[in-house]
Amino acid sequence: MIPGADDAITRDGKALILAYDHGLEHGPVDFEPVPQTTDPSTVFDVGTHDAVTAIAVQKGVAEAYYPSYEDDVTLLAKLNGTSNLWMGEPDSAVNWSVDYAAELGADAIGFTFYGGSNHEVEMAEEFRRAQEQAREHDMGVVMWSYPRGQGLKDDTSPDTIAYASRLGLELGADIAKVKYPGSADAMNWAVQSAGDMKVVMSGGSKTSDEAFLSTVREAMDAGASGLAVGRNVFQRENPEAILDGLEAVIFDDASVEEALGATAGLEASD
Ligand SMILES: O=P(O)(O)OC[C@H]1O[C@](O)(COP(=O)(O)O)[C@@H](O)[C@@H]1O
Question: Where is the active site (predicted)?
């Protein structure tokens, strides 16, 4: 971690990264709830919301769509990724070089690291190359730190998520993106385990407005530095409303009630 290396993808030290690499990781099934999101332009439009500090996409989407948005969004180059068609031990192909990401205008790289996979050693070596090249270009480094593999029984237990965030610090990330470990105490343990490195929560599958904002509020109270989110934003008919709510919670320290109350279009659960 280098202090300040993530400045381009944070605001006031906080991040709201809009992840849109699902077409590779999960396939078009993730676009079915809001079919317009199959078109990357729709999600780049969402990414122009003030709350969004960076948009994370794969190479092909960056090449084709980022040039039309370069004045309006900050590009985070998701360097590696694997399709859901892959049935082997967790692994992730490096799909573009850091040099090429920099040439396209990226301010940061994102890299999935599956600690605990049988491919952990190769992935750590790939991360090392990418991290050092990112330093040459003054780019921030975000690790999608997702321990998983046949030896791991519970990939969201408090100890596993604390280990995930620590791996980010140990290997040289500026921000580690981790799955929510289920409680504020466990999230706090993950944040403490990362020292001065920032930890952001991963969005997960779509939940209600109130449930999602409550989890984000808990994560922030536990010391998280924000969120990297995909489906919980782009699978909503009104993604701007949830981004207004997230902006209130993450950047303005609003309560869930304040965020729901102040933001037209958001709903408390029944
Ligand atoms: O490996 P998983 O758990 O299926 O999720 C991978 C996906 O989750 C993310 O890390 C976060 O997206 P979500 O907020 O939709 O969960 C994406 O960047 C990625 O495509």
Answer: 146 (proton donor), 177 (schiff-base intermediate with dihydroxyacetone-p)
